[in-house]
Amino acid sequence: MSTETLKISLVQRILNTENTNVLQKINELLDKENIICYDLKGNPITDKDFIKELDQINAEIDNGTAVLYPHDQVKNVLPMQINWYNRAVTDFEDITDYIRSKSTKRRYGL
User: Fold this and answer.
1) Model confidence at 80, in pLDDT bands (50, 70, 90)?
2) What are the residues whose beta carbons fall under 8 Å from the beta carbon of 37, sequence distance 6 or more?
3) Cα angle 97-98-102, degrees, rounded to a multiple of 5
4) How many Å apart are CA 77 and CA 72, to the nearest integer?
5) Are 44 and 35 in contact (CB under 8 A)?
6) Percentage helix, strand, coil, to 5, in the chain?
7) Can you give the pTM of this predicted structure?
8) CA dist 78 to 41, 53, 62, 81, 84, Å?
9) Which residues lie closer than 8 Å to 39 by C-beta, 6 or more apart?
10) Which residue has the higher pLDDT, 64 or 108?
């Protein structure tokens, strides 16, 4: 099962469950992972991963091995990242709408 298929399956099951205990366990599991953001490929980044990466960057800066970029280079990359984020949000909303429509049709026998 692909990651996308698994995500869709999980979302459908979560939307269809009325069991509060199951929903609380899912919430606790996700809180434990504490995903704070996603990389440009859509992979989750937890708070622990983020802090670890920051510590590594700080160590590279301290020992003089960090690769740093001037403001102009960063400024040119940022619009591309914002564009990617907007597309990802739109895709997620489309998937959510699709799942809701299928769930509603199934629930009411449509």
Assistant:
1) low
2) 44, 45, 50
3) 115
4) 9
5) yes
6) 75, 5, 20
7) 0.40
8) 15, 20, 26, 5, 10
9) 45
10) 64
